[in-house]
Specification:
It is a single chain. The protein has about 400 residues and is of the alpha+beta class. It folds into two domains: about 260 residues, Metalloenzyme, LuxS/M16 peptidase-like (Cytochrome Bc1 Complex, Chain A, domain 1), CATH 3.30.830; about 110 residues, Arc Repressor Mutant, subunit A (Orthogonal Bundle). It has 13 helices and 15 strands.
Length: about 400
């Protein structure tokens, strides 16, 4: 059993191997069709019989076969002592016997042509989903797929949201997502629409997919997607449960762990929320707690202008009552802290409005803003120190 440590507050996560085999690409819609409804009813009956046939003994047998010391990673995130954690789990689980877990089942692609499935339900909304094969969590190009998903359908400025909801009023909910598994993956787009608009909405989804395929994405879209992805990562690293999941999942599935500061960088400026550390190159930047939170907020929202009142609410909290000019004092201190590395000009004053973090590098600083630079990370691994418990 292996132990990983990172963060402040203690969290423990048991991460076992879990594999989901993705079905072949299909288009799924919900609409009125008696014959297909009867077909799906028969399928549902068969599925119910299969679930009801699952016994308690079979479930326990699976658990005892798969959840064993040599098939589990214990990930701990918190202000803990490494030796104490090792001793704790050694005492608690030291007599846990090892075993021979079943191997995961490889994905089998038996599809030879596009296919569509329709399921009928009495609802006021039609649910459309278009899915295609994508990349596994071991493929170095999976990061590119994630960025395409952000551009296409994640967020209120995404292509699908702007085209199908804002411009054409075809739906309320529309989004895309990517899933990565051990040897396969899936990329999908979804829309919830009025049943009368199902055909039009399906055509619009296909149009947007074809546009990405044929024309690609712009440099501006790619830059925004990278910044959004970095912001999400920084926010996730504020929660110890996410930190433990981050290190445990990577150790189990990849055999190594990439730390947050490996994948969060803006114009040569690095921020590691887990270690409360900011750096530029080999230089550690000396930041007080408030200035660190202020920089973290800016780096999770690059390019956006924030007034003093908004910054007070986001960084200080809406329960703290201080004058808005307090923001100016801490902005000045933050710039002073960034000055030794030449990054003070990243914090830009927008007169009469507030402040923002520049997305373009300041003069004299090389452009290096990336969430996952494929050329940089291929073959690179930085394991988190770990100890084996008896």
């Amino acid at each position: 059993m292996e132990l990983e440590l990172q963060g402040w507050k203690v969290k423990v996560a048991l991460v076992a191997v879990a594999v989901v085999v993705i079905a072949a690409p299909f288009v799924r819609a919900t609409m009125s069709n008696k014959s297909r409804a009867e077909d799906w009813h028969r399928r549902a009956v068969v599925a119910e019989e299969s679930v009801n046939g699952l016994t308690r003994e079979a479930t326990l047998d699976y658990m005892h076969r798969q959840y064993i010391p040599n098939n589990i990673v214990v990930a701990v995130a918190g202000a803990v002592d490494h030796a104490e954690i090792v001793d704790f789990f050694s005492d608690a689980l030291g007599d846990w016997k090892q075993g021979s877990p079943s191997r995961w089942f490889p994905a089998i692609d038996g599809q030879t042509a596009p296919r569509a499935r329709v399921q009928y339900k009495r609802t006021e909304q039609a649910h459309i989903e278009i899915a295609v094969h994508a990349l596994s969590n071991q493929d170095p190009d999976r990061f590119a797929v994630d960025l395409i998903s952000i551009i296409l359908g994640e967020g209120m400025s995404s292509r699908l949201f702007m085209e199908l909801r804002e411009k054409r009023a075809l739906c309320y909910d529309v989004h895309s997502y990517a899933s990565h598994y051990l040897d396969t993956g899936a990329f999908a787009v979804y829309a919830g629409v009025d049943p009368k608009k199902t055909v039009e909405a399906t055509g619009a989804l296909l149009e947007q997919l074809a546009l990405v395929r044929d024309s690609g994405v712009s440099d501006e879209e790619l830059h925004k997607a990278k910044e959004l992805s970095k912001g999400r990562l920084l926010l996730r690293m504020e929660d110890t449960r996410n930190v433990s999941g981050w290190i445990g999942g990577q150790e189990m599935l990849n055999g190594f762990v990439r730390t947050p500061d490996e994948v969060v960088e803006l114009a040569g400026l690095r921020l590691d929320p887990a270690a409360r550390r900011a750096s530029a190159g080999d230089r550690d930047l000396q930041l007080w707690s408030t200035e660190f939170r202020l920089l973290q907020f800016f780096m999770t929202h690059p390019g956006r202008i924030f007034g003093r009142a908004r910054l007070l609410d986001e960084v200080w909290g809406d329960h703290v009552f201080v004058e808005e000019r307090t923001v100016d004092v801490h902005i000045r201190r933050l710039r002073q802290a960034l000055a030794p590395s030449g990054h003070e000009t990243l914090i830009e004053t927008v007169r009469g409005v507030g402040y923002r973090l520049r997305t373009a590098p300041p003069p004299g600083v090389s452009a290096h803003s990336t969430v996952t630079d494929l050329a940089r990370f291929r073959g690179v691994s930085t394991p988190v120190p770990r100890a084996k418990a008896a």
